């Protein structure tokens, strides 16, 4: 009797195990189908359309998303280009995506012999607008854009990242209802400066290579000290003075060797006091430059104080923060020649919403001018404008959520 019971029990157990095994297989197959369906249900497909330009690293295109019809900028990087920088830019862009004044991430994929990054299209960059305004922005315009530019750097630094290439071509405006917003772009030279969780700051080191554009880099960057938040802020100071005065004392230096040229630029930056550099400008420019140059290596800049200074300067001028930028009048001929009495020399080889807080609102995506994409932070730009008759179609593969890697400090660019 007990043997018969045991036999029945074993049979039932075997049937149960078989059923469980079959159910497991069914669930596994169902899960695979669901994953497959999810992966291919709505692939982001892009068309390459107009080629904006090319650099040593790859090409930049205007494209569009087939599913939405939305126009995008596509950066195409050759796999042969070493070291790759697009993957770093993608990670930073994903972490910033959706914040006011930053391009929206649209896709990242690998094709035959290249990697590509799709992001929002914007309007003209500040370098182009500066030239439209006879290489001089009105003081009112400089003070208004300073407010937004400080906010952009504050948010980037809040995201544990340094920009390290502050220059006119890396700030852009939107179009239509976004033309009052200043965008910060080009994150190929960015670097994580602190651990995202513990906020432990990277150590100060010496003997680093110069990173960025020589005209705007900080004195500490020149002498090989590790970059930190203070260096982005100092670079911004030089850029604002350049916009306000039309030139900087260390422009137009000619030398056969870059090292010699950088040495002369450094010496001029060292010997030119903030008071001398900001001569003819509101005292707030001197305050700003003195403050950022005196920051400790790991010290957080007082972004709110800087914005307040520049807003006070605007009030002193009896001007309103009304977004009436001078470039809005440049094309209509309202800007007189008197705005550029000391026209800056041509730059050779360097071509390249309340703004008081950073926000997480979604920027509208818009189309840029053909030559408004920054191609390579440290090389000459070559712009080629032509249409492609054969439209290349690619599919952006889904990627895992990008997290800025701890201590993976974009070693390629150090």
Automatic annotation (TrEMBL):
It comes from the Eukaryota. ATP binds at residue 76. Keywords: ATP-binding, Kinase, Nucleotide-binding, Transferase. It holds the Pfam family Pkinase. Residues 46-310 form the Protein kinase domain. The keyword Kinase applies. InterPro entries: CK1_Ser-Thr_kinase, Kinase-like_dom_sf, Prot_kinase_dom, Protein_kinase_ATP_BS. GO terms for molecular function: ATP binding; protein kinase activity. CDD domains: STKc_CK1. PANTHER family: CASEIN KINASE-RELATED. This is Casein kinase.
């Amino acid at each position: 009797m007990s043997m018969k019971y045991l036999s029945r029990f074993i049979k039932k157990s075997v049937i149960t195990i078989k059923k469980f095994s079959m159910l497991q297989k069914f669930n596994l197959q169902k899960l695979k189908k669901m994953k497959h369906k999810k992966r291919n249900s709505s692939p982001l497909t892009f068309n390459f359309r107009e080629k904006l330009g090319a650099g040593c690293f790859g090409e930049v295109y205007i494209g569009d998303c087939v599913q939405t019809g939305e126009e995008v900028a596509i950066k195409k990087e050759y796999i042969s280009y070493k070291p790759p920088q697009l993957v770093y830019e993608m990670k930073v862009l994903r972490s910033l995506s959706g914040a006011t004044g930053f391009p929206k991430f649209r896709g990242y994929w690998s094709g035959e012999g290249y990697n590509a990054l799709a992001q929002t299209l914007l309007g003209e960059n500040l370098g182009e607008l500066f030239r439209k305004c006879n290489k001089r922005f009105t003081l009112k315009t400089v003070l208004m854009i300073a407010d937004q530019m400080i906010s952009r750097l504050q948010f980037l630094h809040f995201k544990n990242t340094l920009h390290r290439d502050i220059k006119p071509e890396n700030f852009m405006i939107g179009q239509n209802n976004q033309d009052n917003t200043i965008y910060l772009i080009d994150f190929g030279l960015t670097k994580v400066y602190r651990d995202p969780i513990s906020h432990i700051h990277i150590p100060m080191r010496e003997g680093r290579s110069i990173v960025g554009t020589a005209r705007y880099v900080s004195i500490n960057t020149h002498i090989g000290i590790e970059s930190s938040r203070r260096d982005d802020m100092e670079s911004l100071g030089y850029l604002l003075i350049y916009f306000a005065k039309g030139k900087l004392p260390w422009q137009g230096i000619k030398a056969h060797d870059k090292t010699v040229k950088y040495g002369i630029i450094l010496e001029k930056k060292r010997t030119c006091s903030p008071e001398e550099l900001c001569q003819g400008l509101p005292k707030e420019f001197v305050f700003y430059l003195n403050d950022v140059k005196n920051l400790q290596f790991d010290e957080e800049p007082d972004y709110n104080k800087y914005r307040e200074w520049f807003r006070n300067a605007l009030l002193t001028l009896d001007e309103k923060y009304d977004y009436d930028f001078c470039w809005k009048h440049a094309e209509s001929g309202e800007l007189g020649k008197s705005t550029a009495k000391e026209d800056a020399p041509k730059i050779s080889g360097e071509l390249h919403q309340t703004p008081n807080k950073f926000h997480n609102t979604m920027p509208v995506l818009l189309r840029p001018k053909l030559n408004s994409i920054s191609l390579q932070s440290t090389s000459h730009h070559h712009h080629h404008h032509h249409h492609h008759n054969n439209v290349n179609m690619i599919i952006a593969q889904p990627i895992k959520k990008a997290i800025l890697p701890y201590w993976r400090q974009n070693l390629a660019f150090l």
